[in-house]
Structure formats: C-alpha cells, structure tokens
Design a protein that fits this description.
Elements: H1 6-17, E1 30-36, E2 41-46, E3 51-55, H2 67-71, E4 74-76, E5 81-84, E6 89-92, H3 93-97, H4 104-116, H5 121-132
C-alpha cells in the first residue's frame, strides 16, 4: 500500500469528519444567542447543549446599549463569536466562557468598579469614624 502525502491525508480527514481547519474541535460554539430583558443578561446556547449567560453591561461597548441594540445579536465565524452591529461590539465565545468581556484595560476597570462597590465591616467602621470627625478630610494643595 502506497503512503499518502499530507494533502491527501487532510482531504481524507475532512471527508471523514466533515470539519475543515485545524481548530480545536472542543472549543464551544454558539448556536443561538439572545438578550433577556428581565435579567439584563445575554444567553448563549452552545453546540454542546449547554447554556451560558452573562451580564450584558459587562461587555465592552455594550455598557450604555439600549434593549433594542442588545437584542440584535449576530453569530460570527460559525458561532465562535457574537457581534452587536449597531454598537460595533464583538465578543469571542471562548473568551466570554473564561470571563473575558473586553480588553485588558476594560477588564481592569470592571474589576476596580466591582471592588470599590464592595462593603466590609472594616470599611463601614472607617466610614462611621470619618463621619464623627466631620466627613472626609479636605484635600490640601501642596
């Protein structure tokens, strides 16, 4: 039996599996996506029969989008990405599953705003103490 060259082997693999390209076949793809108005979440149905949801306002470019703009979602690249055309915002499904909703700078800003909104007994005690002293100290020019 003669050995097949790499091109013939690839053609045989594509014919056998029905898949073109070297992408990791375990990478999930979106089959459908929708905006849920009640919960303000984007719900993505994946090709492995799982459903994933995330806060719509967490996505870079969607923080000020209207409900109508959020509802208009297109699937990109055989379901590897989501796109909101009226906002010109896109998101990779794989990134969203990993909790990445934008650029590094965007993610740092999200983390900082979340950390600043957290309360703890220590923060509450410090705020009460500052209140007894008349509030935050004034900023003095150097």
């Amino acid at each position: 039996m003669a050995k097949r060259d790499p091109v013939e082997r690839e053609i045989a693999r594509v014919n056998r599996t029905g898949r073109i390209g070297g992408r990791d076949e375990r990478e999930p793809r979106a089959q459908a996506a929708r905006h849920e108005r009640r919960t303000e979440r984007i719900v993505v149905e994946l090709d492995n029969d799982c459903v994933f949801a995330f806060p719509a306002r967490s996505v870079q470019g969607l923080e000020n989008a209207t409900a109508a703009e959020l509802a208009e979602i297109e699937l990109l690249g055989e379901g590897y990405g989501l796109h909101w055309p009226r906002r010109n915002a896109s998101l990779r499904v794989e990134g969203a599953l990993a909790g990445i909703f934008g650029s590094r700078k965007w993610m740092m800003r999200l983390a900082a705003s979340e950390a600043g909104s957290r309360t703890s007994p220590r923060k509450a005690a410090a705020a009460r103490e500052n209140g007894r002293k008349g509030g935050r100290p004034a900023v003095r020019a150097a």
